[in-house]
Amino acid sequence: MSRKIGFWLLWLGVITYAFLLAPPNQPETPELIKNLSTGKWEGINPLIIALFNIMGIWPMIYGALMFIDGRQQKIPAWLFATVSFGVGAFALLPYLALRQPNQEFTGSKGTFLKVLDSRWLGVALTLGTLGLLSFGLLKGNWGDFAQQWQTNRFIHVMSLDFCLLCLLFPALLGDDMARRGWKNSQVFWAVALVPLVGPLLYLCLRPSLPDSGDEVATGSQQPV
Q1: pLDDT digits (tens, 9 = 90+) for 136-158
Q2: The dihedral sign for the CA sequence 36, 38, 41, 47
Q3: How many Cα atoms occupy the beta-carbon half-sphere of 88 within 13 Å?
Q4: The pTM is what?
Q5: How does pLDDT run across 174-190, given as a tens digit for each residue?
Q6: Quick one: CA torsion of 11, 14, 16, 17, rounded to 10 degrees?
Q7: Cβ(81)–Cβ(172) under 8 Å?
Q8: 154: burial class by Cβ within 10 Å (0-12, 13-18, 19+)?
Q9: How far is 76 from 78, CA to CA, in rounded Å?
Q10: Phi-psi map region of 166: left, alpha, beta (phi>0 left; psi -120 to 50 alpha)
Q11: 22 CB burial (10 A radius; 0-12, 13-18, 19+)
């Protein structure tokens, strides 16, 4: 119960901060968002471009756990995962507060869950993220980013959202490892303590979920 209350309080806290305490909105923000979304990146700080696109990768990282976790939940994980593409941790925190601990997976995975469970998804997300990080870190202007972080609500809150997504991942990690029979505290902390790259490597290396559909198919081929 205290864990759930903590998530709700954090959710209320970040909403309050984002709307009341963060720097003000800037008149150019809608145009900036439009250009970032449509690939018109000329004149935009590469650090902002990289951060904006990584914020689109984070929901896919979480989705690779949440859609599986949601199989045993009473709440629709897909709804929170989908909304997180637009508002990030602001959508994920209510899910974390409402979900129940779940360390089992039953039934057939189906095509969609097989894609989410695939290590190839983790590899693709990792390669994309490394490319964005290299682009932003090597070509970005840190002085400009710091100035925009201090004066632009969109940049400020997006940065806060990124940090929250890094911190919240362990809330789903333990159950996902248990569903796979991977009970290793060293792996847990290695993933939890390495922001962004840790979760990506976890998706690349985690064992596959058991699939009862495969077991049924295999069993049907055995002689009676």
Answers
A1: 999 999 999 999 999 999 999 99
A2: positive
A3: 26
A4: 0.90
A5: 999 999 999 899 999 99
A6: 170
A7: no
A8: buried
A9: 5
A10: alpha
A11: middle
Count Cβ atoms within 10 A of the Cβ of residue 24 and give its class: 0-12 exposed, 13-18 middle, 19 or more buried.
Answer: exposed
Q: Is 188 exposed, middle or buried (0-12, 13-18, 19+ CB in 10 A)?
A: middle
DSSP SS3 for 153: helix
Residue 35's Cα: distance from chain center in Å? Answer: 23
First to last CA, the chain: 50
Closest CA to 7 of 101, 93, 95: 93
Place of tokens 């097989």: 114
